Amino acid sequence: MRDLLSRFGFVGAQVYQRVSDLSGGERSRAALARLVVQGVNVLVLDEPTNHLDLWACDALEQALLNFEGTAIVVSHDRYFLNRVVDQLIVLEGDGRCQLIHGNYDTYQLMRAQQQAGPASGRGKTEEPDQVPGENAGSAAAKQKRRRRFPYRKVADLEADIVGSEARLRELEQLLASPDLYRDGDKVKETTRSFEETKAGLQRLYEHWEEAVELN
What we know:
By secondary structure, the chain is mainly alpha-helical. It has two domains: 2-84, 3-Layer(aba) Sandwich (Rossmann fold); 141-215. Helices cover 57% and strands 9% of the residues. It contains eight helices and four strands; from the N terminus they run ααβαβαββαααα. It has helices at residues 2-7, 24-38, 54-66, 78-84, 104-120, 134-144, 154-175, 184-214, and strands spanning 42-46, 70-74, 87-91, 97-101. The strands form two sheets. It has a two-stranded parallel ribbon with strand order 1-2. A two-stranded antiparallel ribbon has the order 3-4. Strand 3 and strand 4 form a beta hairpin. Helix 7 packs antiparallel against helix 8 (184-214). 10% of the residues are buried.
């Protein structure tokens, strides 16, 4: 049992702590250790890397890679998805979904190919038969839809998302450090930065989804 707990970052006197005295990230790790020892064959995880520092995320990834059962994961953490998943169910903004056999990089590659397909045919002189007024109607419908966010390139948004995810990880690591809580002002400042970064990241996700859909 001590070996199992050490795999999830609980060593020394930590193994005698009450669960109620643990931080949010430590409780998540303790819950995962409990699931492992129960021998379950299906895990359902909702944003499992939230509130985990980089070391804990790596421990979680290794545990899932060694898990012999099925793991169903909901996550916006692209690095985590690339490490642990082999199938994706991607929910689109219009209610459709795609089944991708691969990780997040596979999905990005397929999406880039899909977007390049219509663009490659724009230079052709021959046009297929069209119903009069059909394109005009669809163009008008597209114009009627207003953007929630200002226009930005998808690639620029994705770069900002990567940076914000890295910053969120840094703040989570700070919040998990006992040294931080010796200074009340730093606790308030770090907590505020964490909440602002998390809210900003959520807006970036929404902006990215709109940019992809209207691109």
